[in-house]
Amino acid sequence: SLYAKFLRKFAEHHGMTRIEGKIADVLQHDDSGNIKALKLENGELVEGDLFIDCTGFRALLIEQTLNTGFEDWSHWLPCDSAIAVQTEAIQQPIPYTRSIAHQSGWQWRIPLQTRTGNGLVFCSKYISDADATELLLNNIEGAPINQPRVIKFKTGTRRQHWNKNCVAVGLSSGFLEPLESTSIHMIQRSIVRLLQLFPAHGIIQADVDEFNQQTKIEMDNIRDFIILHYKVTDREDSRFWRYCKNMPIPASLQHRIDMFSQSGKVYKYGNELFGESSWIQVMMGQGLMPKEYHPIVDLMEPAELQSFLNNIKATVKRKVDTLPAHNDFVQHYCKSTAM
Ligand SMILES: Cc1cc2nc3c(=O)[nH]c(=O)nc-3n(C[C@H](O)[C@H](O)[C@H](O)COP(=O)(O)OP(=O)(O)OC[C@H]3O[C@@H](n4cnc5c(N)ncnc54)[C@H](O)[C@@H]3O)c2cc1C
Q1: Which end of the chain is more exposed for a tag (fewer CB within 10 A), N or C?
Q2: Distance between Cα 175 and ligand 1 center (Å)
Q3: In 3D, which of 116, 171, 123 has the Cα closest to residue 146?
Q4: C-alpha span between 309 and 300 (Å, rounded)
Q5: Ligand 1 lined by 188 (C-beta under 6 Å)
Q6: Would you place residue 335 in the very low, low, confident or very high pLDDT band (cuts 50, 70, 90)?
Q7: Rounded to whole angstroms, how far apart are CA atoms 122 and 261?
Q8: CB of 261 sitting under 6 A from ligand 1
Q9: Residue 339 and residue 302: Cα distance in Å, rounded?
């Protein structure tokens, strides 16, 4: 919410005009099919050359008007529902979000300065909304401060993120479940990408193709990283986890798993969000250990390796000793005005 407010203020300061209203109809040019104008409920017509679809899951322009098409990824990421509830903060916030696996999904616990955000992401095929709500409420700390709210979603991506004169940003462009909290990052990336390829002198197909290609690569990589969390589980204690363990996965992810499980090799491709250390943490964290290692490793004597690791440890300790505690930092730099 604060980020949205910040962006609005920033944009208005730079000359943007905000028009409040509900879009009742989207008008298209007869010849090209390009979007011509938005008709608001009060009858006002908003014409434009380029339209950015920010209508969330409704995808009013990119899908309902332009029928761009949706690639469904729910066979790889079967969670399709979330319940969110906020609770009173009962202790000083710890400096990280917890993701806790459950029988048919996972729970988030996000400590803020004034409250804790909680939620359960789950697959409705294996647990009902009512049972999921009960499960979440039994696993929170502190009294709830709002009613639990169920949100339904479908994981997948728009077949094109820029189609004709419409660019989809945010949930209208697709959705990856929030296990790695990537949506707002992807919004930011889309904004930067659109600025870089901005059609100042008219829309050029090469720019559209580049935008779509870059967005696709970025989403595919994040998708694979999230699927990895589920796929390499050794849990077999529920139908949900058995499905995840045995489901087919994208060839691109299978390749990464094969590379790592054979010889511990991990690569980061281009601008992808998650680096080698993230991939290694999830693979090893979930119990996937490489069978072999690169022979070059044997060129280093154990004593030399030990000294190298000790050095890293000492450097980290020296740095950490100079840093303020999490809460001191927060209080100093970004104390909540709601406190
Ligand atoms: C369960 C869940 C957990 C999430 N967790 C994270 C997270 O941890 N980190 C993260 O980065 N992201 C997360 N996200 C995603 C994040 O919420 C979205 O990326 C963010 O809200 C941006 O969405 P948006 O602006 O695209 O759509 P929305 O926030 O849905 O906004 C769409 C807007 O369009 C408006 N609209 C729709 N139709 C019309 C119309 N006809 N006329 C006028 N206006 C219209 C709506 O009123 C709404 O204001 C999560 C999402 C879900 C569902």
Answers
A1: N
A2: 10
A3: 116
A4: 12
A5: no
A6: very high
A7: 29
A8: no
A9: 53
